[in-house]
Amino acid sequence: MDAKSGISCFTKWGTMYVLLLPIILAMAVMGSSLARQTNQNNSMQRHGNISIRSVTVNKVTSQLAEGKVNKSAVIGTAVVLDCPHHIYDLAVWNVYLHNGMWCHLSYRTDEWQESKNCSEDTNWLSRPEHLPSLQIKSAQISNEGLYRCSISDTNGTFFFSYYLTVLVPPKVSLSYNVNGNPMCKATAGKPAAQISWIPAGDYKTKPEVSLKGTETIISEYYVTNATQDDIACIVSHPAWEKSHVFNLSLAMNNAGRTDLTRILYSSLICLLGIFMLLLFIYLWRVFRGRKTD
Asked: Has keyword Membrane (predicted)?
């Protein structure tokens, strides 16, 4: 009885093992497949990240050395605009002026090919294959605008921009106006000049805008101290390295006013004397006529 029971138990466990073995093998195969797929996905993700970083680095490299500079020049002077990179394959200057005009200059070193449509006043500083700098021979207000240089080489394309402003120094005059007050006038400056007075006092400043883009500043000073002898007008402008000082003597003006007052008083006294003389003659004739009658 015990022998039969043992055989029956062994048979049952054997049958269960035979039935479970394919399931175990199938699960093992599936697990191995999932593991390989996971490893492949991780590998692809790592390669994808490396590729993205590589593209990003290349993009940043192609945009290096980009800069912008505000540059000013006095009217009538020469202006040189430099491109920082002097070793290049292609150099291009694009000019966008405030008056709506535009032009370009370009040069390819590998083909020695030059193209330009700017005026003769705006040209290469020297031979472009040696130095891609731009020169404006005589800066005028019409030359104001954006000057953009692009340099292409094996590392990418580099950009550099200049915003050009032309300065016009004013013409200054200092005199007395019709009211007898000192008047300082800075004519046709760009930008507008700054006017101050020594000694500091009460004054009034007004601007006048012209059609050529320049401004005229007129400042009238009100003298409050009768004993003041001299006055100075100080004019500042970006086109000058330092302020200009213009002096005016109030003593001469006061002396002139005194002389004018004396002349007026003398004239009035003379007129009054003539009037009194005529009145005396008239009254004498009237009195004499009545006495005769």
From this structure: yes
